[in-house]
Design a protein that fits this description.
Number of helices: 13
Structural class: alpha/beta
CATH architecture of one domain: 3-Layer(bba) Sandwich
Strand content: 25-35%
Helix content: 25-40%
CATH superfamily of one domain: FAD/NAD(P)-binding domain
Shape: globular
Distance between the termini: 14 Å
CATH topology of one domain: FAD/NAD(P)-binding domain
Radius of gyration: 21 Å
Mean pLDDT: 91
Length: 402
């Protein structure tokens, strides 16, 4: 009889793990708190080891077919004039815009579609209790449904994982980076193009517009905040956030007023205090952490999706390679943790360097990107824009497939 795995979270890491566990003979169930697959979200990069995992899954061409069409990054001034531009990367890992750029929701849909025939997906439910003390499996309780037993439970439900908290309590540190970002989908206009346009305004504010393949534009508003705000501030409602954005961004310049007006009507407004997750361990008994729930590197790292894809691949492979889950989890950490630690080492000054607070800082930042875009400095800039996506040798587990 096949062993049963419960995976909490149907975004990137969860469905990828389900795919690989099924290849190794496991019966997989994914539970997702949202009432249906969440198709929203901004651009994500598939780089380096993450792209290699996509190749081994046979989905690289599907990702390429669904890319956003973003041709690179342009930094613009208050009047919209471009001060510097960086074309999209042409390798597995290079560039601020990766060669493979896809919307988070489009990638999740692709992965769920790839696994739907082999994995049970339960939407509109969540794990409420985990008791890993039974000889015949882990007892799991759900908000809507009867208690069930599984041989493995994996928390892959994001930065603020509720499943992680049930098992690990507050052991994992959520470390704010001092930046709050709001994302929304807004109408595309005749003035929009296929560049990622970035505008910085004094006060630690930035406004970015990015193309998507659906005829709309993905907008983001970011502002520097005290680093402890994520732990001290009450979560705002969407309407409260809209009012807050008006207070912070009105008069910032460029396309800001257009974005604020569109966000008033957007039904997919999402906002988050950008943070990293530092967990001293990624497993307890027969429960493991995966993706952002284990080691969120933050959106500014450019590594979140690649870490999720590769982490799911390695976790499943180590489980297939070992009889005892404790040995498997140990192997998972040995392979992944050095890469995770490198991915979480952001460049000095991140994210404040790219979100200057003073007018002088905005001027200096503009000068820096202009210099970085020059032919002489191109190689240096390319290095700075390239996350360590290939800094891992992926093991080969193909001999373990059934």
């Amino acid at each position: 009889m096949a062993r049963r795995a419960l995976i909490s979270g149907a975004s990137i890491a969860g469905p990828t793990l389900a795919y690989w566990l099924h290849r190794y003979g496991w019966e997989t169930t994914v539970v997702e708190r949202a009432p249906e697959l969440r198709l929203g979200g901004q651009n994500v990069d598939v780089r380096g080891a993450g792209r290699e995992v996509a190749r081994r899954m046979g989905v690289e061409d599907d990702i390429r077919a669904a890319t956003t069409g973003e041709v690179g990054t342009r930094f613009v001034g208050r009047n919209g004039v471009t001060s510097a531009e960086f074309p999209a990367g042409t390798s597995d890992s290079g560039g601020a815009t990766a060669e493979l750029e896809i919307l988070r929701g489009d990638l999740a849909a692709l992965l769920v579609q790839r696994t739907a025939g082999d994995t049970e997906y339960r939407y509109g439910d969540r794990v409420t209790a985990v008791h890993d003390d039974a000889a015949d499996g882990i007892a799991v309780s759900f908000e809507h449904g009867q208690e069930e037993r599984f041989d493995l439970v994996v928390a892959a439900d994001g930065l603020r994982s509720s499943t992680r908290d049930l098992v690990f309590g507050d052991e994992a540190e959520i470390r704010p980076l001092g930046l709050e970002t709001s994302w929304a989908t807004i109408p595309r206009t005749a003035t929009d193009d296929d560049w990622w346009r970035w505008y910085s305004a004094p006060g630690g504010r930035s406004v970015t517009l990015r193309p998507d393949p659906h005829g709309t534009i993905r907008a983001a508003l970011s502002v520097v905040t005290p680093r402890d705000r994520a732990t001290t501030q009450r979560r705002r409602s969407p309407d409260e956030q809209r009012a807050h954005l008006r207070d912070v961004f009105t008069g910032a310049g460029w396309e800001t007023e257009r974005v604020l007006d569109a966000i008033d009507l957007a039904d997919d407004l999402y906002f988050e205090s950008i943070a990293q997750v530092r967990a001293p361990r990624w497993s307890s008994g027969r429960v493991a952490l995966l993706g952002d729930a284990a080691y969120c590197a933050s959106p500014v790292s450019g590594m979140g999706t690649s870490l999720s894809l590769a982490g799911a691949y390695v976790l499943a492979g180590e489980i297939a390679a070992h009889v005892d889950l404790r040995d498997a989890f140990g192997g998972y950490e040995r392979v992944m943790r050095p890469w995770v630690e490198r991915a979480q080492q952001l460049p000095p000054g991140t994210p404040r360097l790219a979100n200057p607070v003073t007018r002088a800082g905005v001027t200096a930042f503009g000068l820096a990107v202009r210099v970085g875009a020059s032919p002489v400095a191109g190689r240096i800039a390319g290095h700075l824009f390239t996350p360590p996506a290939e800094a891992i040798d992926l093991p080969d587990y193909r001999h373990l497939e059934r």
